[in-house]
Amino acid sequence: MARHAGGSFARLGRLVTRYAGVIILCWVAAAAGLNLAIPQVEKVIAERSAPFVPTTAESVRAVQEMADRFQESGSQALAFVVMSNDDGLTEVDREYYRLLVDRLRADTEHVAVVQDIISRPALADSMNSADGKAIYLPVGLRGSIGTPEVGEGVAAVRAAAAEQDHSDHLEVHVTGPSATIADELHETDSSIAVITAATVVLITVILLLIYRSWVTALIPIVAIGISLAVSRAVIALLGENFLPVSTFTTALTTAIVLGAGTDYGVFLISRFHEQRRAGQDPDTAIATATSRVAAVIVASGATVAAACACLFLAEIGIFRTTGPGVSISIVITLLVALTLIPAMLTVAARRGRAEPRRAPSARYWRASGARVVRKPVPVLALSLVLLIALAAFLPGLRLSFDERSVQPAGTDSNLGYASLREHFPANELLPDYLLIEADHDLRNPESLAAIESVSTAVAKVEGVNTVRGATRPLGETITEASVGYQSGEVGKRLDTAADELAEGQDDADRLAGGAADLSEATGALAEGAGGLADGTAQLAEGSRAAVDGAGRLLAGLREAGGGVGTAAEGAARLERGAKELAAGARELASTLNSAYQQARSLADSIGLALEGLNASPLCGVDPFCREVRKGLNEVYHANRDTLLSGLRRLAEGSQQLADGNGRLATQIGRLNSALHEAERGIQELTSAQRRFERKLGELAAGAGEAHHGASELAEGAGRTEDGAERVEDGTAELTESTTELRGGLREAADFLLNLGTAAKDPAIGGFYLPATAFDNPDLALASGYFLSPDGRTARMIVLGDSDPFGTEAMHRARAIRAAAERAVHETPLAGSRIAATGMAATNADLDDLVRQDFLLVALLALGTVLMILFLLLRSVIAPLYLMVSVVLSYASAIGLSVAVWQHLLGQDLHWSVPPISFIALVAVGADYNLLLISRIRDESARGTRSGVIRAVGATGGVITSAGVIFAASMFAMMTGNVTTLAQIGFTIGAGLLIDTFVVRTLTVPATAALLGEANWWPRSRPQ
After folding, report:
1. By C-alpha distance, which of 840, 137, 63, 183 is closest to 420?
2. Which long-range contacts (CB under 8 A, 24 or more apart) does 68-72 make?
3. Cα dihedral 580, 582, 588, 594 in deg (nearest 10)
4. What digits encode the pLDDT tens for the residues 382-406?
5. Among 928, 993, 990, which Cα is nearest to 955's?
6. Is the model's pLDDT at 508 over the cut of 90?
7. Sign, Cα dihedral of 963, 965, 966, 972
8. What is the pLDDT of residues 286-317, one digit of tens each?
9. DSSP-based three-state secondary structure for 76
């Protein structure tokens, strides 16, 4: 297989030298033609860039669901226009705000929604700063964060803000997550040109130092340029169809191609120079160099391409868009290195250029190899100590998910954040969101109480400052909805009723006194009526005596005249007394009716209180509430069944008494008229004695009737006396009952007031909010903002006390969701879907995805590279310890980055640094070790130890040069404005240097020397 491969590569070398000019022209034509026919990769990225965070992330899906449930188009990509004036916002500034709102509303292509205080005045308090110096305007953009559509939207908002004139003192910035990512991508794109230029300069300087020839140095540079031109065109072509791309694709592709392409050129040129020094002619030397190095270059390229291709299986956009692009570029660079570089060397060598200088001394590297072979154990131990010492910083690694910190402080989004921090409460614009999606309408007391339970549980999470939701729209539980408050209100009303009854007690006492007077008066009336009956009896008897004794007529008439006058006077007094009695009875009936209405109103109030307590889902489990409900129930039934019926009967009896007294007064009036007529008759008898005899019979008859009427009057007066006594007894009973009722009401009021105070304790309290409460205008905003239109989804806003981009916020977001899931158990919300979103929740999901992607990609990359090493070396032992050395080298590189960035510079590593650095260092580190171990294998025909010395001496300069060049291309990434690229470049560059000067120089040679023939197991000694 090796001979076949060598033969194939030998034929390739001869073919390249024969058609060198054609190959050069073909590559130049391909680069030019593809770039003319295909749009530039930057344009494709601008149109088709993948989202920054995958849409499969739970928090991203929750954002979309929230927008759908609450009918808030554009809420998944928000930007904030922050306007501030240190002298205070003026009317001119507010006019600018109004005009900007109109301008943004007109831009329907980029803007989905504008949440302004003009159309929604209720938001004015939250969007205006307390100091009156700033205001912000939320703008919903079309698309997802990190996509070109949102980037264009951010640019459009900034253009609108800049085109609208404003005062010199007003500062306007566009910020928010959408603007942050847009600025980061813009800064990354702007840094590529600077990074590329710096890399080319560094590589050129290094090549000139190595070869001391402009022609020789320019050959790898030209090859790299062709590789980049073709790679960019191919990536653009594939990106227009299916390949995921982003700004990071071009940034890392450029850096990797510059480093790998230079390495491949150095390998070929160094071997070509070696063959020329051995006396071969240019064409033969190039063909030999190609055939000898091609296998290593192919294996190296395949290793890098395969490892980077594994990133395509990741979910995070920066990984998916970086890996495939690098793989494609490495394959193209590999083809360019095997064809274009030999072709350019052929053309240059035929003209006497690119010839080797004096052979560099290999004495240092041979001596290094000899020292390793003589003392492999101490050397291996020393190298492991160095690597482990650096890797010791790795456990302290803290990943940063703050995209603000990786870009310059002067970006528009960062200036906007600074303005917000100065004028608004912390985290006001970047809260956590919690969604509860149920299978039923939540606008009922039971579900609302469950929502309040979730709010209470979330509020107890460490780091949570405020929870806003349907039951606490301003961050505090609706006071009127607590059972304690409601109990207190009932107590207050009962207390007021008791006071009113106390005020009515005096009236009841006066009523009782009046009833006693009425009883006494009717007694006197009954006594007078009895006397009247006796008098009329005597009158009848006298009339009969007058008929028998005419002689006694005058004396009888005088006596009768006096008696009739007296009777008339008594009847008049009796008539006035009866009228006064009727008026008193009517007043009594009115007072009793008023008392009846008051008592009935009190019973209705108690009934309403009972209905509220019976409807509360928590009253059944709250012992205080059950006692209240029982006491009110007893008061209610006693009032309704006893007091009301008694008052009604008393009022009816008083009315009847008033009606009877009225009829009595009428009868007495008639009697009084009759007595006056009798008096006139006697006068007539006195003046006309002759007529006396004829009238005596009539007088006797009239006296009989008078006696009968007086008897009826006496009987009625007796009945009136009995009724008055009953009224007296009833009013006394009413007074006593009212006193008892007042005491009971005060006792109930005191109990409820105490309950209202005790229920404010969170360990006791309850919650009750009827669905009709949302008809209240004060709760209209809560209903529309925290409950979806169909009532099936509830939203909560959670404000924390830490930076929403920080790790504490990520942990808090996880704890918030866990607390909510626990709180819905055994409630009407059991089984509901709980989702969290917001910046902290998104970063928490991103953290989980990074770990998952890292684990998946690392295992695939290690497996792929290990398989390539197995196939190339046809050994088991050597590939295994090579992979261990590469992983240890990676751990050392990350440890060094932690020490430099985290401990010295005070900045945590960006979350993308470890995965991308791992892929690059595993692939490239395996390349250098592969080149070394394959040379050791080739030189070990007379023993592995001698093979190590010769291999280190032969490859030491080449691998060191390649490692330094590749590391320089990575360090050049630190010249950009984006810290992410700087950290990736530093970590990979440091890892390459560690691999070059420690692993490849000490660890691998020492291990190979110790293992000896076991390196090639299961094969025998190389021949």
Report:
1. 137
2. 69/435, 69/437, 69/788, 69/790, 69/792, 69/793, 70/785, 70/788, 70/789, 70/793, 70/795, 71/788, 71/789, 72/113, 72/140
3. -120
4. 999 999 999 999 999 999 989 898 9
5. 928
6. no
7. positive
8. 988 888 888 878 888 888 888 888 888 888 88
9. coil
